[in-house]
Write a structure and sequence with these properties.
The chain is mostly beta strands. It is built from three helices and 15 strands. It has one domain. A 15-stranded mixed beta sheet has the order 8-7-6-5-4-3-2-1-15-14-13-12-11-10-9.
Length: 269
């Protein structure tokens, strides 16, 4: 039988040599099984502004293959556009774009948003260097620069759109309502704590006339600079291999806008 001292030495050698590999390889790489290039989802939008709740316009979420600085990537684009009476009451013209590599690591996020009387442009670019991630965060608000700063972290960090790619590939098996997954999230110029909360399974009817069994989740931001918590997004994704977002409920400056699936094409599975 092997001497116990030898076993202990081998154990510590394994820890010493393999630990750096674990850190290096933990650069946010995820095997994508949920979506592929060519997926396109069309949504109907609904406003929820206090007592005002009405159909508000159209939205879309598309995935295409792209090249980002010589690297094969996915380009995800979400568009939210209000129209009609609701659009007159409160305008929303948002375009969110996220480039993520084939391992679902965020590379670049941009948001151009008209919400009410405010116009904003955001940009977050990611650089991976060993076990460090540098995120340059820029925001312009109504034509003036709000900030241009670099956030450095050693944790996988996501933006508003790349987090959807992450969530669609989570394994919810065995989870119970109230269980949650921790991730890092870039909020403006700060990397903050976020939790993906599992809310259970239900059946919802989408605007394509079909009923879907869905996994319900919410994403809660825990910002150390504030005592309150913020539900940045709620979603219901199909309880199958595609994890198609059937409902996406996004927080606005005033109230929220809900996107309900109207049509989906180009699914992976």
């Amino acid at each position: 039988m092997m001497n116990k001292k030898i076993i202990v030495v081998i154990f510590f050698l394994l820890v010493f040599f393999l630990a750096p590999l674990t850190i290096s390889n933990a650069q946010c790489k995820i095997v994508n099984t949920a979506f592929t290039s060519g997926e396109e989802i069309q949504y109907d939008l609904y406003f929820n502004l206090g007592i005002f709740n009405a159909r508000a316009g159209k939205g879309s979420l598309t995935v295409t293959d792209a090249n980002y600085r010589g690297e094969n990537a996915y380009k995800m684009v979400m568009m939210l556009n209000t129209s009609g009476l609701a659009g007159t009451f409160y305008t929303v013209q948002d375009t969110l774009t996220s480039y993520i590599d084939k391992d679902l690591r965020p590379l670049l996020f941009t948001k151009e948003a008209v919400e009410g009387k405010d116009y904003s442009v955001e940009r977050q670019s990611y650089t991976y260097d060993g076990d460090k991630i540098s995120i340059r965060a820029i925001r312009h608000w109504n034509g003036e620069e709000s900030f241009d700063e670099v956030v450095v972290t050693d944790e996988c960090t996501y933006d508003y759109l790349s987090v959807l790619a992450y969530v669609r590939n989570l394994d919810f098996t065995g989870m119970n309502p109230g269980d949650r997954n921790y991730i890092r999230f870039i909020s403006g110029k700060r990397a903050v704590n976020m939790y993906v909360n599992y809310l259970g399974i239900s059946t919802v009817k989408a605007n394509d006339g079909k009923s879907y069994e869905v996994i319900n989740i919410s994403m809660t931001i825990h910002d150390d600079a504030f005592t309150n918590q913020k539900d940045a997004l709620k979603a219901s994704v199909t309880n199958d291999a595609n994890r198609v977002p059937v409902i996406i409920d996004t927080s606005l400056k005033l109230g929220s806008v809900k996107a309900v699936l109207r049509q989906v094409t180009g699914i992976r599975n």
